[in-house]
Write a structure and sequence with these properties.
4-stranded antiparallel sheet, Immunoglobulin-like, alpha+beta
Length: 204
Amino acid sequence: MTTTYVRQTVPSPATDDNILATHINSEVDAILVALNDFDASNCKKSGTSIPLANITNLTSTQMAAAFFKDEDDMASNSATAVSSQQAIKAFVDGIVGHDGDGFAYFDIDGTKTKVYTKYLTGTTDGDSQTNVAHGVTSGATKILHVSVAIFSSGLSKYRVSETYIGATAAEAYQVYFGDTNVVFGVVGANLRSQTYKIKVDYIL
């Protein structure tokens, strides 16, 4: 609610006093104008802003240096500074990848390296070997890890392997990869013509 200040009307005094009263009334009117133009809710004159220097005794540059950081690595680890959107995005991108490229950073032999992950799905062949093109540039030397899950509808369970797993001849299989393919070798009869999912971790 806005409060409006008004001066109370006073009776006309004697001639000598009238001069003084006129002067006082003029001063009071000036004060009322100022009061009515004051935004009490924000402690400032209506339509104006308070310079930061009036509050903090710091310039805008000094304020930015003291309370604002644009550090992609957030190296200062400040407990009081506000970070920029750009710095926050760059920091998060550096941890979990960015723009849908599907990579994360890992320490490989002491070097911060982008590691990508892809998933390949399909159905195993009906014979004893299934070849699945992994599509990794530069082939096997860039692949860090391959794991495979094969779902056997007859057994109602997954068989998961990094190199080899086998329970019976009907369920046994080997997994290996080369420059071009991930290969399921000697797949047992129960695991032929079944759904598979391959996870490949690799670098560029």
